């Protein structure tokens, strides 16, 4: 009993930590995707960068909107030209568009993209040293010179180049840290994926007909009789013995 309570407590603690984390990531993703139009995409898989445009808004204004939607793990100091918001699996860089100063570029980078394209020394002016040390694995990563979408022509990213987003890109949620390759099975009225002799499929609404069939015959008295070995035995009256008045049942 004590073991069961301990196991239940561990599950509760795990869910209490995971659910808020998923809610936070989903909140910032949906806010960015639903609020700002997607302008450019770079990279693929776990190394991706999505750039959105916030028209007619300053960097601090956009930062305030995103923080209200989902609180980041760390936020850089308020600035008019550039700010960073750090979440569990992505970093959001807010940049004033030099070609259209009234707009803000919202760049959502996966942590793998940051590790392989940014310079650690560049980010030191915005983020805590302890966070950068963990992000770049104590200097193992961070050999790039990239500084953001607004400077992409001068400080080019190592992971591919930016391109116009496709229809699929616009439907996708901003970068994930892993490449998902799982399969989803949908229940269908005519789905069939049974094995021979299984008698049906777990994805089918109705089971397939069984290969084996039974037969019921009736005798001359009209009573039904099964031809299968599963037919119940006929019960017989117990034998009696004359003597001391005792009744014994046949063994």
UniProtKB/TrEMBL annotation:
<keyword id="KW-0732">Signal</keyword>
<feature type="compositionally biased region" description="Polar residues">
    <location>
        <begin position="191"/>
        <end position="215"/>
    </location>
</feature>
<feature type="signal peptide">
    <location>
        <begin position="1"/>
        <end position="23"/>
    </location>
</feature>
<feature type="region of interest" description="Disordered">
    <location>
        <begin position="147"/>
        <end position="251"/>
    </location>
</feature>
<feature type="compositionally biased region" description="Low complexity">
    <location>
        <begin position="220"/>
        <end position="231"/>
    </location>
</feature>
<feature type="compositionally biased region" description="Basic and acidic residues">
    <location>
        <begin position="166"/>
        <end position="190"/>
    </location>
</feature>
<protein>
    <submittedName>
        <fullName>DUF4247 domain-containing protein</fullName>
    </submittedName>
</protein>
<dbReference type="Pfam" id="PF14042">
    <property type="entry name" value="DUF4247"/>
</dbReference>
<dbReference type="InterPro" id="IPR025341">
    <property type="entry name" value="DUF4247"/>
</dbReference>
């Amino acid at each position: 009993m004590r073991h069961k309570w301990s196991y239940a407590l561990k599950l509760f603690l795990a869910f209490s930590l995971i659910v808020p984390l998923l809610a936070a990531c989903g909140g910032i993703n949906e806010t960015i995707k639903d609020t700002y139009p997607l302008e450019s995409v770079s990279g693929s898989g776990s190394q991706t960068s999505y750039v959105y445009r916030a028209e007619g808004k300053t960097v601090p204004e956009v930062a305030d909107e995103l923080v209200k939607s989902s609180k980041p793990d760390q936020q850089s100091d308020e600035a008019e030209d550039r700010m960073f918001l750090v979440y569990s699996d992505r970093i959001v860089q807010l940049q004033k568009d030099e070609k259209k100063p009234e707009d803000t570029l919202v760049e959502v980078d996966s942590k793998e993209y940051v590790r392989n394209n940014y310079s650690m020394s560049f980010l030191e002016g915005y983020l805590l040293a302890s966070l950068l040390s963990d992000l770049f694995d104590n200097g193992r990563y961070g050999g790039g010179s990239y500084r953001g979408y607004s400077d992409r022509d001068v400080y080019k990213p190592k992971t591919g180049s930016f391109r116009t987003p496709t229809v699929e890109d616009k439907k996708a949620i901003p970068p994930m840290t892993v490449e998902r390759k799982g399969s989803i099975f949908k229940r269908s009225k005519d789905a069939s994926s049974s094995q021979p002799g299984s008698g049906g499929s777990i994805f089918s609404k109705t089971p397939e007909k069984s290969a084996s069939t039974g037969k019921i015959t009736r005798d001359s008295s009209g009573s039904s009789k099964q031809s299968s070995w599963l037919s119940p035995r006929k019960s017989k009256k117990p034998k009696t013995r004359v003597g001391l008045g005792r009744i014994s049942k046949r063994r």
